[in-house]
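Quick one: structure tokens for this chain, please?
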Amino acid sequence: MTLEEIIIIIFRLIGSFAVFIHPFYGAISVILIDFSDLILMNFLKLGGVSNYQTLDKILDISYMITFLIIMLRFNKKERYIGYSLFIYRIIGVIIYEIYKSRIILFIFPNFFEVWIIGISALNLSKNHSRLTKKNIYLLIIPLFAIKIFQEYILHINKVLDNYTLIEFIEIFIK
């Protein structure tokens, strides 16, 4: 294991705990920290990362566990949906690790993380009541559409495979 991998692991693991401080803002912070390893890999020159996708998926599980703990605060229906989405993603990660095909990450996107963000956002509202079928769809459809688009960009189009994250951002700034 390289020093670069160790630094990324420590940063990501410590960052996972932000969700305990504040579920919504912590979850947003965890997702941003998840992407930070792409930036760290651009700046750190301490031995590189030998298998980024595997390291990233393992570290994703660490923050997903903190999300599972936070989910205990949710009502029964919200938890049931969350557990289902967690299991769906874990199945996808296992299949990915067996076949090493990134299309599997597209087929099994991490809807769990956007569910946690969505429910945590709803919980910010003092008027938040039990989820109805209607507001579940109003929450799920836009969040899941955004997540599918992100997974397409990362794992099918592989945009960041051809550029560093900094170069990718510079393309849109110009």
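The CA atoms of residues 17 and 66 lie 7 Å apart.
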